[in-house]
Amino acid sequence: MKKKPITILDIGEELNISASTVSRALADSSLVNSETKKKVVELAKKYNYQPNFTALSLQSNSTKTIGVLIPNVVHEFFGLVLRGVEDHCHSSGYSCIVYPTNEDPDREISGIKALMTGRVDGVLLSFRGKTNLHIKQLIERNIPLVFFDTADESFATHRVLIDDKKAGYLATKHLIEVGSKKIGFIGGSENINNQLRLEGYKQAVSEAGITIDPQLIVYSLDKSQDEMGLEDSEKLLSVKGIDGIFATTDMFAVGVLKNLKKINLKCPEDIAVIGFSNWAISRVYEPSLSTVEQPGYEMGIKAAELLIDQIKNPETPSDFKTVLIPTEVIVRTSTARGNNVAHST
Amino acid sequence: MKKKPITILDIGEELNISASTVSRALADSSLVNSETKKKVVELAKKYNYQPNFTALSLQSNSTKTIGVLIPNVVHEFFGLVLRGVEDHCHSSGYSCIVYPTNEDPDREISGIKALMTGRVDGVLLSFRGKTNLHIKQLIERNIPLVFFDTADESFATHRVLIDDKKAGYLATKHLIEVGSKKIGFIGGSENINNQLRLEGYKQAVSEAGITIDPQLIVYSLDKSQDEMGLEDSEKLLSVKGIDGIFATTDMFAVGVLKNLKKINLKCPEDIAVIGFSNWAISRVYEPSLSTVEQPGYEMGIKAAELLIDQIKNPETPSDFKTVLIPTEVIVRTSTARGNNVAHST
DNA sequence: TATTCTCATACAAACGTTTGCATTTGTATG
DNA sequence: CATACAAATGCAAACGTTTGTATGAGAATA
C-alpha cells in the first residue's frame, strides 16, 4: 500500500542511464552532458524527487541534526533558549531533536544514550543530574558537546552561562542601594545556579557591612501549584524588620508580593522585592517587579553557534570557551524608592 | 583525529567471525552458538558498542522520529502540547524533531519540506499558514500526519482539537449567568480558533436574547510587549455600560484587568472578565482570573498517540478521527459574583 | 592507420546494519 | 559407508546515496 518514494535509480531507469549519472546531473557536475542534465532535472521535478535523508546521512556520516537536552519545555527561559537554538540551527541548515528531561535524571540518561547512537552530530546540554558517567561517554565518543545554563566543571567543553554570582550580587546590591538593610534570600532547589546567586547575595551583604543572618536565607522546595513558594516566603516575611527580598525566580518573587498584601506590608515602601529572569509576569504583575534579565534567546543562539562551529571543525579545539551572557538589573515598581529612584506612583 | 565508533564488523574481526553472526548474537538469535554469543556480548560491552542509528534507519526504512511543527515554543499552551507529545514519544521509543515556525509561513514551508526527505516517520502539525500545497505533498507521499490545535478541513487526517466554539459559548454563558448583559469580545489575530470562539460568543449572546453589537467585538493585532492588547481593550472599555468581557487569551484578559484599575472600575463588581487557556498568570494575578481550561498536555499526548498508531499501522485508515479534548470554565475571582457564585472576598 | 585525448557514462565500493539462503562441519541413522 | 539431518556460520543482497576509477566512443593528432 505504501508508495515508495522516487529514487535516483528510478529516474535512471526511466532515462536508461545509471544512478551515478543521475546523481551527478542533479549536483550539476561538469562531467555530465548538458542534454542529459536537462532530462534528469526535468524528470526529477516531475516526480518531485527528494534525496533520501537517511541514505545521505549514512554516506556522509553526518545527520545535520543536533540533540538538545533541556530540563523543562514549559518555561519562559528555557523556551527562549530553545527558540534561539532553533533559530541558529535553521539558518545553518540543522535540525533539533529536543529531549525535555523534566529534571528527571532517568530522562537525562536515556536522552544521552539515545544521542550516542550517531543520530546527532552534536549535543546541547543543560546538566542537572548528578551522573556524569554518560556525559563522559559522549565525550569519549568525540561527540561535540556544549553546556548551557549549567555546566559540569570537570569536562573540557564550551559553556554558555550567565554569571549567576554577579547577577545575585547586582540584585542584592540594588536592594541595598534603595535602602534595604535586612535582606532575605529565597531560592528554589539548591542547584548550582541558586548557590552561586546566594554567593553573590552574601558578597553584596557583607560589602555593605551587614552580618549574614542564616534565618534570612531560605530554600523552598515547593513544587506545588505554580512554584510560588508561598509558605516559605511567609516564613521569611515573619522575620522582624525585614525590608528587602531577593528571590531567585520571578515566580517566587510574585509569591512574596502576594503574601505582602495579606499582611498589609507595602511594596516598595516597607519592603523592596527583586526577582530573577524578567519573565512576562514581572512586567504584568502589580506592582511590577524589578528583576534581573536572563537572556535566554541570546544564550540559545550562542550555544548553537559554538556547537555547530565545533561540528564543522572537528579537530578538537584546545581552547574551550566559557561565554558569559551579560545580565542587568531591571528596575520596576517593586524596588522604586530610595535615593536614586523616584517613588512609585 | 575523529575516533570511528565500533561496528559490528570490528567485533567480528576481533573474534574471527562474520558481521552477520555478531548481529544475530546481539539479537540473541537461537541460530548462534551460546559460546559465541557470550563472547560477542562481552566484547560489545567492553567496547560499549552502540548500533549505528542511521544504518538501522536506512535498512528498516523507519527513523523512529516524528516531526513537530509548532507555531511558538515560548508559550505555555504550546509548551504543554510539546511536553505531552514528547512524553508519549518517549514511552513509545520515538524522538521528536521540533520546528518552531514562529507563525511565519516560510518557516512552516521549509519545515514541511525538510520533513519530506524521509527523516521522520510522521508529522504533527498545527497549521497556521495559508499554503496547503506542501501539506498536500506530504499526504501524497503517504507520510502520516496529525493536526493539532488547528486543522485544515480539506485533508483526510486525524485531528486533535478543542471545541473552540463550545468553549467560547461556555465562557460567554458564564458571564451571562453572573449577570453580565453588555458583553465585549476581544481576540488576537483573526485566526480560525478565534473565529470559532467568537461564534460561540455570538450564540450565547443571542440565546440570552441580547442583540449582537459590533462595537463590542474587537480584534487586536497588538504584537508589542506581552501581547496584552492594552490599547484595544481600552477602546472596548470606553463603551458605555459594558459589564462583561470575554478575552480569547489570558494575556488579553489581564490587559483588561490592568486597564480597569486605571479607570477605577471594579472587577468583578462592575464588570466581569473571563480569559482563555488557564495560564499560570490567571491563577497568580490579582484579582485571579476566571478562564477556560485548554488542556495542552492531553492534546499533545493524544496527538502523538494517534500519529504513532498510524505509523505502526501503515495501511491508510478509512476512519479519520477528530478528537475533541474536553474543556471547562474555571471560575475565579474575576467573575465571582451574581446568583450562583459567592461574592469575592 | 595507429595513437592519444576528451567527453560522457557506467561500474563498484563504501557507509553499517539485517536477513534469506548457501555452505560447512559434525553426528546420527539406515 | 553413505545419506540425512541438524547446528553453526558465512555470503551476499538490500536500503539510497556519493565518488573514485574504469570503460567506451568519437575526434584529433602524428
List low-confidence stretches of chain A. 340-345
Total DSSP E strands of chain A: 12
What is the count of distinct domains of chain A?
A: 3
Q: Determine and state the CATH class of the largest domain in chain A.
A: Alpha Beta
Assigned CATH architecture of the largest domain in chain A: 3-Layer(aba) Sandwich
The CATH topology of the largest domain in chain A? Rossmann fold
Written as H for each helix and E for each strand, in order along the chain, the element string of chain A is: HHHHEHEHEHEEHEHEHEHEHEHEE
| Quaternary organisation of the protein chains | homodimer
Mean pLDDT of chain A: 92
Taken as a percent bin, the fraction of beta residues of chain A is: 5-15%
- Main β-sheet, spatial strand arrangement of chain A: 2-1-3-4-5-11
Count of runs of 4 or more consecutive helical residues of chain A: 13
Main beta sheet of chain A: 6 strands, parallel
Principal-axis shape of chain A equals elongated
What Rg of chain A, in angstroms, do the CA atoms define? 27 Å
CATH homologous superfamily assignment of the largest domain in chain A: Response regulator
Q: Into which percent range does the helicity of residues of chain A fall?
A: 40-55%
Structural class of chain A: alpha/beta
Distance between termini of chain A?
70 Å
